[in-house]
Amino acid sequence: MKTLNRKILAVSLTLAMVAPLAVACSKGEKADDQKERVLKIATTGYGGDDEYFRQQFTEIFEFANPNIKIEIISTMDEKYRYGGMQPGEKMPDPLEKLKEVMQGDNPPDLVMMGYEQLPDLIENNLLTQLDPLITKDKFDTAGIVPAVIDGIKNAGGGKLYALAPSFSSSALIYNKKMFTDAGADFPKDGMTWDEVFDLAKRVAKGEGENKVSGFSFSTQAQGDLFYGMQTYTAPLQLKMFDDAGEKMTVDTDQWEKVWAKMAQMQKENVFPDLFDPQKPMNRQFDQQNPFAYDDFMSGRLAMSIIHYGQVQQLTNANKNAASFKGYTPIEWDVVTMPSHPEAKGVGGAIYMNGIMGINAKAQNSPDAWKFIQFINGDDWAKLKSHSSYNLVARSKYLKPKDGQDFHMEAFYNVTPAPMENNNNKIFQEKPYIYQVQDIGRQQFDNVLKGKKTAREALKEWQTQGDAMLKQMKENPNQPVPQPATMGVAG
């Protein structure tokens, strides 16, 4: 009986929250606007009957517009969603399938896509420009955070071809006490990476088990710097290989500059110690420290990149510190992600959710625009603003939760780094190309350990990678033996 009561209460609360949306949406509607009609939505990442997709995007709209039926068109073959590929089988490109559907005989009215797919759809004139509709209906875009509106405008050459109702983001978190104890200024918004590294040198101290590192790309203990530094390289748009995935592009001055910088920072103890397989991984499994797996929460790290979803864990730990033996509450705050002088204000860890645009061949573009306004409007943002992991795109509903007081703007006053859809396409077409990336990781490890200079390691990566790419071109669905000259790094 209690379970039934809970369900009734949950439904009642949902209806109570959605009812104002329905009223708002129906105001001023003409009588002939109530006729039954269908709105077709195509997606690249969800199935046709995906429950999460409906809960997240369409159910509220359908409740507020009972005369509009949503038809979801998935461009992903269901057999590939759960690893149904056979040896030697090539997975279809989701973007190419979406483009095919958009131009078919029964095209969708609205499409949802990934940020990396947006430029391609715009360049091929497959999306309707939204600016005239925004102006005509006086739809408010001023309240949409820079992380979303600027990112989408950049993809469209300054014009809007889509909108996104929510996003996830990261910021630079810092331990206030460590900076105070070192007599160093707190980090601030808009810093360059070099400024952050200089600050990190000032607060780093100690060695061995007592070492406090100045900065890490991840709070995770004993993380991998090669993959972690992609946050640093993404705004620079460094590429491992060309657009065809046939030729390496790492033997360059820019790659050398990045690798040399990372090696220098490692040498100056800015970063945590390199993982040593000869030593036990006690930091991650210390029974005296419930958060041993996290360098920042364990007091071993002054600054790090933190995802918004991690804030809740830190907040809960501070609030319940008495319950965690060995945990000391941390006084912290966040500032915007550092950026490079040549890409000022561009961060490398922002992901937009539910990017939606109107198909240029839409048969029901009025309802497609109505849907976009609804999902990207104030009421939807207010309703969805309670998430602890995703952030709504409207800044007025972005406030710290649970009585916390931190610099929330740090998570959204940045612009996302451009994303390469072509890179994703190459990884789909050549499923073993990750082996080329792994060669780079091993060569980078040699640089960090002082066994090779950055340029020497990059030249070897270029040569070995080219040989592997050549074999993959000839046989893309087979693993490639590592070059005999590679050996074992470290």
Automatic annotation (TrEMBL):
Keywords of this entry: Signal
Keyword rRNA processing part of the UniProt annotation:
no
Keyword Nucleotidyltransferase in record: no
Record SUPFAM superfamilies: Periplasmic binding protein-like II
**Signal peptide bounds:** 1-24
User: What name is this protein filed under?
Assistant: Extracellular solute-binding protein
Question: Which organism encodes this protein?
Answer: Paenibacillus sedimenti
